[in-house]
Structures are given as C-alpha cells and as structure tokens.
Amino acid sequence: MHGEAALQTLALRALEASRADETEVVVLSGESSLTRFANSAIHQNVHEVDLEVRVRAVSGSRVGVAVSNRSDDPSLRQVVAQALTSARLAPEDPEFRGVPHPEPVPKVTAHSTETAAYTAQQRAWDVKAACDLAASNGLEASGFWSTREREVLVANSKGVLAYRVGTQGSFKTVMLGENSSGYAERNAFDVKAIDVPGAAQEAVAKALRSRNPEALAPGEYPVVLEPYAVGTMVGYLAYMGLSATAVQEGRSFMSEFFGERVAAPSVSLWDDGLDPNGIPASFDFEGVPKQRVDCIDHGVATAVVYDSYTAGKEGRKSTGHALPAPNPGGPYPGHLFVEAGDADEAGLASGIKRGIWVTRFHYVNPVHPKRTIITGMTRDGTFLVEDGAVTRPIKNLRFTQSVLEALSSVEAVGNSRLLVQDEAGGACVPAVRIGHFRFSSATQF
Amino acid sequence: MRDLAKRALDSAEVAGASFAEIRFDDREVQSVSVKNGVVNSLVTRASQGFGVRVIADGAWGFASSPTLSGPEVDRIASLAASIARASALTKRQDVNLGPPVTQRGLYRTPFTMDPFTVPLEQKIDLLLAADAGMRSVPGVSIAESTVACIRISKTYANTEGTYVEQHLLETGGGIVATAIEEEELQQRSFPNSFGRHQGTGGWELIQDMQLVENAPRIAEEAVALLSAPHCPADVTTVIIDPTQMALQVHESCGHATELDRVLGWEASYAGTSFLTPDQLGTPYGSEHVNIVADGSSATGLGTYGWDDEGVPGSVIPLIENGIFVGYLSSRETAAQLDQASSGAARASSWNRIPIVRMTNVNLLPGEWTLEGLIADTDRGLYLQTNRSWSIDDRRLNFQFGTEIAWEVAGGKLGRMLKNPTYSGITPEFWGSCDGVAREWQMWGTINCGKGQPGQTMHVGHGAAAARFRNVRVGIV
Question: For residues A225 and A431, what is the distance between their CA atoms, to the nearest angstrom?
C-alpha cells in the first residue's frame, strides 16, 4: 500500500504541472491476488500490483483525458501534457459545467488488515479444504478465492482532495458431479466475514441435489430465484436504465415511468455506497461523496444516479456515481440493494403448484434494453417445484424475459440477503418468488 | 530488456523454479469518440509492466509489476515461486508443458499508414462528419462514432531458451445510429456492432471503411426500423450476414474448441464444452462447414508471430467438411492430449497469465454468392449485424438477436423486420447449413471476455454469409 500521503504528493505534482484551465487527477493503486482451482486442484495462482494516474484536463469547455501507469516525473508531465493537448483539439462542449467543487466526504469502514495481508498459502489451505470436501462427496471443485486492497485518490484544481482505501475478498465455487453442479459465492471487505467452508458446503449440497436432471418443456412458470439470480437480474436493470445518461438520451425504461408503478409494492431497489453490507466506497471517481439513491421505492420508479456532467445538464447535484473519466456510458450504480421481505425458504416455494427453482443465471445479455428484455440460461442447480416443495432437478432452460414484468409479478421476498458481486459492482439481494417467468427454450443438460 | 529478462529467469531458478518465463508488455491506446456532435471521449492510455510465471514444486505461480528494475524483477520472480509452492498444496500431478519451446525472432504487424501519425484533428473531423451524416436523417436520437488505435510491444523469454520480440498494431472504427420512439429503440451499426470493427494494420483500415459515406444509410435504416413490423415467430430458412456469422462462429465453435474449457479449467466461470475428446472425428455440422484457427490471417486480431508462450502462430483445422477435428490449445492443455500447442495461449496485458484464446477462427468461404443464396431461397429471412448474444455453459443452446432482418420471398429481399432473434442447438444448427458464400472478409471482435481475473481479448473471424434451414426465429 502506498498510503494517503504518497498518493497525495503524486496527485499534487500532477496538478502543479498542469497548465489547463481545470485539472482533475485520479490515482488508482492496488494489489490483488487470485487463486483459481479446477478439477479439485489449483491451476492458476496470480498476484498483481499497479498504480495508474488518470488526468482530465479542461480547456474552456473542452475535455481531454490521458492515463498512464508510469509515475516518474517525466511521465507525469507527459500524461498531463497529453490530456491538455487532447482537450485543446476537442470542440467546445457547452453542457460541460467543469470539474466538481469539494464536499465533505463521510467516513466509512471498508478496509481490513487481515484481508490485505491474506497470503497465497492461506488461500491454498482454504481451497484444499473445499477440494477435499468435494472429493469426499464424489465431486470436483472449481472456482476462485481472491483478495485485494485498493486505494483511490481524487484531486482537482478546485480543491477536491479525497482518499479512500478498501479491501475485498471473494470466494466463488462450482462443484461438479457427473451430470450435476452446484454454486455458491461469498463476498465481503473483510475475509473474516467470508465463510469459505460454508460456501463450499452449500455448493456441494446443491450439486448432490441436482444429480440426474430430467427435461422440462419450456414455457411460462412461476419461479423462485435465489439471490445469485436476483443479483444478476437487477444488475442488468441498472445497466439498461438506472443512469441519468440513459434517461437523458431516452434509452432508459425509466424515461416514461417516473412516479409510476413499475414493480410489485414489495420491491424496493436502491444504491448505497456507504452501506457496510456491501463493499463500501465513500466517494466516486470525481471525489463526490456517494449518496443513497432510491431507484424503485415500493414498486414506484423514483430516481436514477448522476455524475457531475449529467447533473449539470439538469442543474442539480451529482449523486456520487461517476466512473473514471472518460465515461461516455455515464454514471453507474455499483452498490445495489433490494429490500428483504418476510418469507423463509419454505415460504418462497409455498403457493407454487408447478414451477421452477433457479440457483443462478449464465451468460445474460439484453435483447431489448428499453423494454428491459434479457435472455440467459439457468445454471448450477435448477429444480422443479410441485405443490409448494422442491421435488426434483431439471435440465437447464433459456429464459427470455422483461425484468420489469418479472418484478411486477413478485409474490414473495426472502427474509435474508446475500451480497453477490461481479466486475461491474455488487448487489445485496434476497431471493424472490415471481408469478410469471418465461422460459423460451431448453438445453441438453 | 534482455538483461532484465535474464535476471528474472535466473532469480526464478534460484528461488526453486523448474521453469520460468517473463513477458514485458508496453502498450499505448488512443481513442476518440463523438456522440451527437460532442467529443465525449478523447483519451490516450499507456500501460507497461512485466509478469513472471514459474513452475515450482510442479505447480504454477504468477506475479507481475509495473516497475521495470533489477531489484523488482528479483522480488517478483521470487514471489511467483512462493505462490507456485502454495499452489502445490492441492496438485494432483506436476505441470507438463510438453516439448520445450525454443524460438528466436522479431515480428511486426504489417501496415501502410501508422494511425498514431494521423493528426487527432483529422480523426475528430472524420468522426464529426460521420456524426453529421447520421444526424442529417430526421428521427435519429443518438449518433455515435469512434476510432481507436493500439500499439503493443511485447518481449517474451523463458528458461528453455526462447527470446522473441513483437510489435503489434491495431486500428479500428465504427458508427452507430439510434432511433427512439416511446418504448421502441432501434439501432444500426456500421461496419460491425460493439461500437467498431478493428483489425491488425494501420489507418488504411479506417479509410477502407467509408464511415462518412455509410452514415446516412444506417441512420435511415435505424429510423425505418421504428415503424417496421416485428419479426414473427416462425421456423424458417435464415441467411446470416458475415458480421453475425463471425459472432456465430465465435460463440458456438471458437469457444467450444478451446481445450482449457474442454478440460474443465474454466468450469467455474465461462463453462465447459460439449466438444470433448471423444467427439473428435464426429459430425459438428454439414459438409459445407469448414472452420480453421489461423494465426496468420491478414488484418486478423489474432495474427502475431508467437503466442504468449513463445509458440508460433499457426493454421489449425477445427472443422473439416463438417467433422470436428481439432482444438485451440496452449502448451499445457495440448500436452494433456499428447498434442503440440496450437499457439493460442494469449494474455490481455502484462498483469495477466496466458490462457487459451481464439486467434482468428475463420469460417472458410464456400461456392455460393450472397446474391445466389438469396435468389435460391423461396421463403426466409436475411439477418444482419449482431444486437444480442447468449449461449449456455457447454456451448449448445444459443440465442442471437440482430439489428435488422429482411424478408426473403421468391428469391428476393422484401420488407424490413425489427427485433429479429434466432436460436438453436449448436450441432443441429451447423448441420442445417446448406451453403456458404464466397465473399469473405476478416472481422474483429474486441470484447471477448474470459478468465478470472477477467481478460478482454481481441480476436479475429474471417466469415462469409451462410444459409441455414429450419431455424427458430422471433423469440421476443
């Protein structure tokens, strides 16, 4: 770890070297390790360290960006000069309102010394235990166990100077049987909160339960989606329409529905970078403090997230959701939460005469973003539900489904939440029961 | 560089490595994007560093750093060996790389005009002209245009005696017009989806695209799609354009023939493959289907001198006259089948390990013309330009959407249809192929994701239009 003082010195050197009207410097520094296993053995085991300097230079209302992972003085001067050269070549952008002014940044706990210091040997022993558990159940273990520490410093010529350091641990596993599989993942900023044996046991149990699946005809069924599947679904909803850029361009499903019901009353979806149940981050990549944004409140479409550019277009304040510049895709909610309900596992399946229990989705992509239609496959544990109980495993199915239509038919919400995390961000979500979900085709396993 | 490489390899051996390799990677990216008349992204990005991968106690370890100095390569080599010894806690067998690789040489991407010497003003002017061309069409809501160029210098050395140096150059560009009306959103991209088409080569690739000339046409199509009828649900004949064929090959053949997937190494993320070794020599598609992995195709994004294990790029048949015959492989995966590596181990950056990736996975041209395929079709659809994609974790059940479809009736193109989709099961689908066109072009896919931690790779696909019978369409 470089530490706040070292990164601050670096950023201030870059600011001093700049001749631009306005300058923003973002320093990203990190050290990460990932132990990957397959066929119950570690086959890839990697470690990386990097430090990246990102400079946004402003000339009038023209903007240029340069990025480099070289931080010696000549390289720093070069990256600053490149950003300004680019800015001067760009046409004026009358909607650019400048880099943000400083604001107080709240303190959040997002760092664990144990996580930062977790070693390859410790990860290997954890993985060995998971592999041994798989072997004792006639299964093969695969997955990864990663730990990382990341520092972010944002400084600009208007006085923004914000620093945060955080850690993250992630354990994900797929246990494979001859014709079955099971999945589990755990994520937290502190490795002490990650129950690796518990996750391995969950995936093993699922793989054993999903043996010898039978074919089921595609069609419309009621479903129970576990948190893994819910996290993927709301992540795509965010990608397709919960940013101000998508709304301002008319691409978002939210554009026509602010203040209207878009989901069942039991559905509330928000973004909160400060909630310790996620992987907290106190400010965004412009140094703006993160605000909680309620996107869907008891089924009603309420708000989307902003960065300073999109906020400036509407004369409002950024909500602290900027990605590193240049970010033509606009702001992004990377800390999603769905409100828990009161249903336990048995309660989720109850009331389903004939339906499907889904562990997780695979290879999901938008089909029609404005109508929130996505497609993807089920994976790693798909089951038939009959008369309110899970009865037998079934082969995987493809779904082609509008997310909003699915959320509109939510009938029950689980009483506990799980943090699911991918490269785009995290979602702390419960399981849900949905009345109507369309499976469009089947596969052979 | 040579001294640092030798020092790293020596340090790794001192730390107990039985094999070590070092790869230096220095890359620079320049990209410009215009949206609705505004330059919304103008960025240069430089990244350099090195990674050391070693085998110690029969297992793998890898460490990387951006700091190019003697003490740092010592530290990283030693760290990689320490990580390898941790890996050995779970090993079932020692890593076997097969025969040693001893290569020497220098490779440079051939090009006519270095895109980094083209003034930024010229790039911006080109994109603004294309942007104006799209926005001259009433009804266009969003016009986007992009050019990007990348230069990569790589040096690879291993303890078996390989030392190779490569200087790769990529150039790409593209335009996208979007029309929006209430709940309907329609998009047309040129020359390919995913924002741009890209290849190895210079600015001449951009000049050949004719972005400005094509801007009004794609904008008109995007607007016309808003009021076009929906693609109806049906089982029919489809003729698929070369850009969508490139992605069809990518998803259903390219990934399916990656030997690491077959061996279960990607089971937890991207998945496995139905093309297990017992399927070698069995039918994959009809006799019209011939697919190769070609590391030497002109302008292909998978074209290089050596892969990131120092193995030369080569031509490997994957599907011959419809029969599954070969794999994309690395040294370690190939050794599991007592084969030689196909030279397809690639890393996306200095801080990533090489894993099995596509090179240029090409559908070889057939004997038809596109015009002939259409004229020979009584009833069906002509599908153009990818819009959505998904396939299961064994690469069997797929569903694609394209930006536009045209009805084919009585051997002629008819009305435009919106929101087309088609789906199938891979071997059944390729088995229904009854014609491949001879108009063939190399396409670039710039968003191929794989691996943990994630690696985004640029791969090539030579493709031509092809016809398939009894395909399910209109799933939305």
Answer: 6
How large is the ipTM?
Answer: 0.96
Asked whether residue A362 falls in the same domain as residue A226, the answer is: yes
Residue A96 maps to which CATH number?
3.30.2290.10
Domain for residue A205, yes or no?
no
User: pLDDT tens digits, residue range A7-24?
Assistant: 999 999 999 999 999 999
Q: Which residue of B has its CA nearest to A372?
A: B183
Task: Give the helix ranges, DSSP H, for A113-195.
Answer: 113-117, 120-136
Taking Cα atoms as reference points, which of B309, B304, B278, B282 lies closest to residue B293?
B304
- Binary contact (A40, B90; C-beta < 8 A): yes
Domain B2-226 has CATH 3.30.2290.10: yes
Residue B49 to residue A69, Cβ atoms within 8 A: yes
Nearest residue of A to residue B251, measured between CA atoms = A363
| pLDDT in the model for residue A351 | 87
Q: What one-character-per-residue DSSP string does A295-358 give?
A: EEETTEE---B--HHHHHHTT----S-PPSSS-TT-----EEEE---SB-HHHHHTT-SEEEEE
Task: Judge whether A208 lies within some domain.
Answer: no
**Closest by CA position to A417, among listed A268, A196, A263, A227:** A227
Which residues does chain B have within 8 Å of residue A20's beta carbon, measured at their own beta carbons? Answer: none
Give me the residue from A43, A48, A68 closest to B351, CB to CB: A48
A133: containing domain: 4-200
Cβ-Cβ pairs closer than 8 A, A with B, add up to 257
pLDDT tens for B388-400 read 999 999 999 999 9
Do A193 and A266 lie in one domain? The reply is: no
| Strand, coil or helix: A400 | strand
Q: For residue B203, what pLDDT is reported? A: 98
Mark whether A408 and A430 lie in a shared domain: yes
Does residue A414 have a pLDDT over 90? yes
Q: Are residues A185 and A250 in the same domain?
A: no
The residue of chain B nearest to residue A132, with distances taken between CA atoms, is: B90
Partner-chain contact A67 B86, CB within 8 Å: no
Q: For residues A175 and A235, state if they share a domain.
A: no
Q: How far apart are CA B320 and CA B339, in angstroms?
A: 18
Where do the domains of chain B lie? 2-226, 234-473
Task: Give the end of a domain, one of A200, A232, A257.
Answer: A200
pLDDT tens digits for range B306-329 = 999 999 999 999 999 999 999 999
Q: Would you say residue A443 has pLDDT above 90?
A: yes
- How many domains does chain A divide into? 2
pLDDT digits (tens, 9 = 90+) for A32-56: 999 999 999 999 999 999 999 999 9
Within this chain, do residues A52 and A182 fall inside the same structural domain, yes or no? yes
* Whether B48 contacts B28, CB under 8 Å: no
Q: How many angstroms separate the CA atoms of A232 and A239, rounded? A: 10
Residues A146 and A251 in one domain: no
Six-digit token pair at B24? 């230096």
**Helices and strands (DSSP H and E) totals, chain B:** 10, 21
Kindly tell me if the per-residue pLDDT of B461 is higher than 90: yes
In terms of CA atoms, which chain A residue is nearest residue B122? A89
Predicted confidence at residue B476, as pLDDT, reads 75
High-pLDDT (> 90) share of chain B, %: 98
> Is B375 an 8 Å CB contact of chain A?
no
How close is the nearest chain A Cα to the Cα of B425, in Å?
Answer: 7
> B393 and A440 in contact by Cβ < 8 A?
no
3-state secondary structure of A203: helix
A353 within some domain:
yes
Question: Of A45, A51, A87, which has the smallest distance from its Cβ to B86's Cβ?
Answer: A45
A269 located within any domain: yes
Domain boundary among A143, A167, A200: A200
pLDDT of residue A295: 98
Q: Residue B450's closest chain A neighbor by CA?
A: A363
**Residues B281-302: tens digit of each pLDDT:** 999 999 999 999 999 999 999 9
Q: Do B45 and A41 touch (CB under 8 A)?
A: no
